[in-house]
Amino acid sequence: MKKFFENLLILILSSIVALIINYYLTSKIVFNLVSINDFIIKPFSIILIIFQIVCIFCITQFIIYKTIDETTLKVFYICYFLMLIPSLFGRNFFKIRIYNLNPLLLLDQLKSFDSVITAILNVILFMPIGYLFKNKKFGTLIAIMLPVEFMIESTQLIFKVGVFDVDDIILNIIGISLGYLLTQKFISESSDDKNDIDS
Description:
The protein has two domains: 1-91, no CATH class; 93-199, no CATH class. Helix content is 78%, strand content 2%. The protein has seven helices and two strands. The chain has a two-stranded parallel ribbon with strand order 1-2. The longest helix is centred in the last third of the chain and has 33 residues, at 166-198. The two termini are 33 Å apart. The model has no long low-confidence stretch (mean pLDDT 89).
């Protein structure tokens, strides 16, 4: 019962913090960089707020209990994919199909502040996917996610809801890889701590 009220308090505080962050930061950054279709902008805004609440709740829960319970993790990934799909495929339609096949263009783009923020968001946005491959080898992760990334970019190009950008593929794979490596590091450290306790 005590833990229930603790989690309820964490949820209330997470909601307050998330609303403040969303109002002053997240909504301004996201809607400035991503042109979401008017038809889904309201539901997307709600999902974005809920996702931020869940993120802060997860971080707080981890800091206090050194773990995140399975139910919270499931809610996190439901909100994550509900937020990810519209951000990838729910943009305003382009009049023409645009593509970039030059990976070196990323270096030129990083000269502007908006491009740097977009690159960082591309990396962060895909980091949670790395956790889903925690029981797989790194090679398996790349072998699965590289074709998936090509498919995402191709879909954006075909339906004119984005740009086929090789830079996005690179940044997204970096994000997924970082998520995977951080997960492996955490698993390794948790295992070492457990072994120290047992010995």
